[in-house]
Write a structure and sequence with these properties.
With 421 residues, the chain is of the alpha/beta class. The protein folds into two domains: 235 residues, Spore Coat Polysaccharide Biosynthesis Protein SpsA, Chain A (Alpha-Beta Complex); 162 residues, 2-Layer Sandwich (60s Ribosomal Protein L30, Chain: A). It is built from twelve helices and 18 strands. The strands form five sheets. A seven-stranded mixed β-sheet has the order 5-4-1-6-10-7-11, with helices on both faces. Strand 2 and strand 3 form a beta hairpin. Helix 5 packs across helix 6 and helix 8 packs parallel to helix 10. The termini are far apart. Bound molecules: cytidine-5'-triphosphate and the ligand C[C@](O)(CO)[C@H](O)COP(=O)(O)O. In the C-terminal section; belongs to the IspF family. Belongs to the IspF family. It comes from Roseibium marinum.
């Protein structure tokens, strides 16, 4: 049977080299295609079949940001995720805290990965695990240096050219047998070595032999503001549905339309309602054929309304057993695909949730982030509002929840329509 691996993601850094006067948000929580960087990183690891456990090392100030990053994930790996632990002043210290928390986990290997590298692929993971499977004590994802390298001992000194033939740029993940790298970290800490910048340097110091494995230029680390801009471009190309990533510039999407959507679901016995893809704890749940996500249903109808393409019930009949218990983001993905086929994209979403309970305020930001992720939008283009109906009507009697949505889309004018009206 294939040996299993734990993923240890270090996310406790402050990102001091990415100085941005507009925000103090650490880089691992900045948004790429509507989701935090960390969410992309965890998705890449969590969806790998040989990774059975995942642990994130976070900063104590980031608990709320971390919770948001997890709820934006919408992926099926939550059963692999362990409770996060707090990191330390240095990257090495943060890894050590993570390894301590993994000590009781029944995994053969550990993949240690930077939260700030969100574009990890399964090919890179497979390469590393393959090296361990054939007996390596440590494996490093790395890319060969491609630029001509120069060395200058001090400013004004003559340049020397460095032979790049045998030079590699270290990436993460870095993969090891779990017990061996844990021992190496303890040895380093007890000998007073506290500032190894990566785990293979520490492993080499402890006498381990590390082999190279194919990294990927796309798996770069977000370190500076320029890296974050590059990452934003890369993420939008990867996550947009095919037709949305059309090369039509926004300036040609001059046919601007708005659709409205409205939906209602009644309560029944349960312990949480799903709103915009987020499970909100409550004393009841919403009744429905799918997951009864009243917010996503209203958004889907509004998206379909904007392109005059029927409604959710027409495309996904409640009588069809296929949609029983379905996660409603599938319905919205389908509406986005229909829009994309016409060369269009969503520009803005505005939602109002009508209910007495549960209180939406504490969950509003999570719901915004989740909707933005599902719709491939920056969070600034999603608005979530809530109101009661002053105890009037079915929502006032706490019998259910209603949601209203308006979705604005941008499309190219169809041939023969002759440009803006
Ligand atoms: N004390 C630390 C320092 C770094 N990291 C993590 O290690 C990874 C790589 O480190 P780096 O790019 O240096 O991140 P920062 O320390 O956040 O950045 P900077 O050095 O610019 O402050 C990041 O995912 C970061 O969150 C960590 O968990 N604990
Ligand atoms: C672990 C690492 O990302 C490998 O490239 C790197 O060593 C982190 O430290 P850096 O100082 O940001 O290079």
């Amino acid at each position: 049977m294939a040996k299993t691996a734990a993923a240890l993601v270090v996310a406790a850094g402050r990102g001091s080299r990415l100085a941005d006067p507009r925000t103090s948000l650490p880089k691992q929580y900045r948004l790429l295609a509507g989701r935090p960087v960390l969410t992309h990183t965890l998705n890449a690891l969590g969806n790998h079949p040989r990774i059975s456990h995942m642990l994130t090392v976070i900063h104590p100030d980031d608990i709320g940001l971390y919770d948001d990053a997890i709820s934006a994930a919408n992926e099926n790996w939550s059963n692999k995720l362990m409770r996060a632990v707090f990191g330390s002043e240095t990257r090495q210290g943060s890894v050590r805290e993570g390894l301590k928390a993994l000590s009781a986990v029944p995994c053969d290997y550990v993949l240690i990965h930077d939260a700030a590298r969100p574009f990890l692929t399964h090919d890179v993971i497979d390469g590393l695990l393959g090296e361990l499977d054939t007996g390596a004590e440590g494996a490093l994802a790395a890319t060969q240096v491609v630029d001509t390298l120069k060395k200058q001992k001090a400013p004004g000194h003559p340049l020397e050219t460095v032979d790049r033939q045998c030079l590699w740029a270290a990436q993460t993940p870095q993969a090891f047998p779990l017990s061996r790298i844990s021992r190496a970290h303890e040895n380093a800490a007890q000998s007073g070595h506290t500032n190894f910048t990566d785990d293979t340097s520490l492993a080499e110091w402890d006498g381990m032999t590390v082999v190279l494995s194919a990294g990927d230029p796309a798996n770069f680390k977000i370190t500076t503001a320029a890296d974050l801009r590059r990452a934003a471009q890369q993420a939008s190309l990867l996550t947009m549905p095919q037709a949305v990533s059309t090369d039509l510039p926004l300036s040609e999407l001059t046919d601007i339309r708005t659709g409205i959507g409205y939906d209602v679901h009644a309560f029944e016995d349960g312990d949480a309602v799903i709103l915009g893809g987020v499970a909100v704890p409550h004393t009841q749940k919403l009744k429905g054929h799918s997951d009864a996500d009243v917010v996503l249903h209203a958004i889907t109808d509004a998206t379909l309304g904007a392109i005059g393409d029927g409604d959710i019930g027409q495309h996904f009949p409640p009588s069809d057993p296929m949609w029983k218990g379905a996660s409603s983001d599938r319905f919205q993905q389908d509406a986005i695909r229909r829009l994309a086929e016409r060369g269009g994209r969503i520009a803005h979403i505005d939602v109002t949730i009508v209910c007495e309970e549960p209180k939406i305020g504490p969950h509003r930001d999570k719901i915004r982030v989740s909707i933005a992720g599902i719709c491939h939008l920056p969070v600034s283009r999603v608005s979530v509002k809530a109101t009661t109906s002053e105890r009037l009507g079915f929502t006032g009697r706490k019998e259910g929840i209603a949601a209203l949505a308006s979705v604005t889309v941008r499309l190219p004018f169809e041939e023969g329509e002759g440009g803006p009206l």
